[in-house]
Automatic annotation (TrEMBL):
PANTHER family: BIFUNCTIONAL OLIGORIBONUCLEASE AND PAP PHOSPHATASE NRNA. Residues 152-294 form the DDH domain. InterPro entries: DDH_dom, DHH_sf, DHHA1_dom, NAD(P)-bd_dom_sf, Oligoribo/pAp-PDE_c-di-AMP_PDE. This is DHHA1 domain-containing protein. Residues 357-456 form the DHHA1 domain.
Length: 489
């Protein structure tokens, strides 16, 4: 258990010390400010009103000492006393912007680390004014402040944790500039982990219906997707104010503020960067959701992960409720998902290291993604495509691992001409309208399933064959990245 001692507690350092009181371990505060002492005592913290260099009030031992008065000379006296009393403790000292050079130098030599108000201020101003990210934030603020009314922050259909968390973060940012905002979605939240996230964190989301009049909103923002009417229930002609996404767009994207960063593993990483740079406290709910969003979209930092993804997660951890996160990650699997997975295994078509499977009619679209993830664990399988149909549309979910075949491009080439498709190199999806085939009766469902199977599997496998041939072979004659024995085609 870490033992922490705070000597002096000026207004600048008070908030940081309040955070210390929330952490595990012991905390002792010695300050001349009676209001601070009384406040900490009310919170159960050992606090005493005395001079910071009054050694008689010091505890028996300390692992970390934070010298935090506003007066640099007072801090220097306290630091000298604390260093002599606790020679092995880690000593931090606050230096105000008005400290004279000699005192600043003496504190720098004495302390293990200086909390320098002048340097912190310069760094903060630089971060907010001197780079491209700063200009993005200014443009975002300008657009948000111009919203007259409530901002609808719309996720893609049937939102995943990354979309939900990004929406919550953008709502938080909008509220920080006095703009009311609501996180909205079309479809359903059916994946058991997604439901657990919403329920355990008591997240408030607005479930929109296709055809709803959105003119009551003062503005529209899209998160984790970039075009209205594509994977959401908005009319295609909807004017969009803000787009924040990490997926590569298939077509030009229009918005008053646009931030697309395909190099990031999650939109939650992008949203976290906003919060961090703007100095906005995310709170436990938003931080937990963002951390989960990053972990899910990067498959626990193993899929399309970037350095900013790790940095964002590290910044979020102290704010997140890790106990809730653990409960979110261990929900029960619904009977619908189990049934879909069973059909996916039973109907699988494996050619080389690729697997495609038709699960027929579905009720839960999220079950396709879960089946695609699970089937990727099969021996010798490195690419999976799972599809089924619902309400006149064929839904396709694909996953890849350990191959240079770009799954997003593969599905775009194979299924884009007959529907919409896209995604990342190792995680992609598609939607294909059934058209007149959707009108078949119950007695023709089996025939419809066979037609869907022939169309989807045929196109996907044919495109994969072309892709692997294009990749070529290495100098020793072996396949560079993917095995597709030609006698299986």
């Amino acid at each position: 258990m870490q033992r922490r001692l705070v000597l002096g507690c000026g207004p600048v350092a008070e908030r940081a010390v309040e955070r210390l009181a929330e952490w595990p371990g012991s905390l002792t505060v010695l300050s001349r400010r009676s209001g601070v002492v009384d406040s900490f005592r009310e919170d159960g913290v050992a606090a005493e009103r005395c001079a910071p260099d009054d050694e008689t009030a010091y505890p028996d031992d300390a692992d970390v000492v934070f010298v935090a008065a506003d007066d640099a000379a007072v801090n220097l006296d306290a630091a000298r006393t604390a260093r002599e009393r606790f020679p092995d403790a880690h000593l931090l000292a606050y230096v105000g912007s008005d400290a004279d050079p000699d005192t600043r130098e003496a504190l720098t030599e004495l302390a293990d680390r200086i909390v320098d108000a002048r340097t912190t201020l310069v760094d903060r101003l630089t971060e907010l004014t001197a780079d491209d990210a700063a200009e993005r934030l200014h443009r975002l603020y300008r657009v948000l402040k111009s919203i007259d009314g409530t901002l609808a922050v719309v996720t893609h259909d049937n939102p995943d944790p990354d979309a939900i968390a990004s929406a919550l973060a953008l709502v938080r940012i909008a509220e920080s500039v006095g703009v009311d905002a609501e996180a909205c979605y079309f479809g359903a939240i059916s994946h058991q982990e997604n439901r657990a996230l919403v329920n355990l964190l008591e997240i408030e989301l607005v479930n929109l219906e296709r055809g709803d009049d959105i003119s009551e909103y003062g503005g529209v923002a899209l998160v984790d997707h970039s075009r209205p009417g594509v994977n959401d229930g908005l009319p295609e002609e909807t004017e969009v104010d803000v787009v924040v996404d990490h997926h590569p767009p298939r077509a030009p994207v229009e918005a008053r503020f646009l931030d697309l960063r395909r190099e990031l593993g999650a939109t939650s990483t992008l949203a976290t960067d906003y919060l961090r740079r703007l100095g906005i406290e995310p709170g436990a709910t938003v931080a937990t959701a963002l951390l989960f969003g990053i972990r899910v979209d990067t498959r626990d930092f193993t899929r399309e992960v970037s350095v900013p993804d790790f940095e964002a997660a590290a910044w979020l951890v102290p704010h997140a409720d890790l106990s809730v996160l653990q409960r979110v990650e261990s929900p029960s699997m619904s009977a619908e998902v189990m049934d879909t997975l069973a059909r996916a295994i039973r109907n699988r078509d494996v050619r080389g290291e690729a697997l495609a499977t038709n699960v027929g009619e579905i009720r839960d679209r999220d079950a396709l993604a879960q089946a695609a993830d699970r089937l990727l664990d099969m021996e010798h399988v490195r690419l999976t495509v799972v599809y089924g149909f619902k309400d006149g549309t064929v839904y396709v979910s694909g996953r890849a691992r350990g191959t240079d075949v770009d799954l997003g491009e593969t599905l775009r080439e194979a299924l884009g001409p007959i529907g919409s498709a896209g995604g990342h190199a190792d995680m992609a999806g598609a939607q294909i309208p059934l058209g007149i085939l959707a009108d078949v009766g119950e007695d023709s469902r089996e025939s419809l399933s066979r037609v869907v199977n022939d169309v989807i599997s045929g196109r996907v496998f044919e495109t994969l064959e072309d892709a692997t041939r294009t990749l070529g072979v290495s100098e020793d004659g072996t396949d560079l990245t993917f095995e597709f024995p030609m006698d299986e085609w």
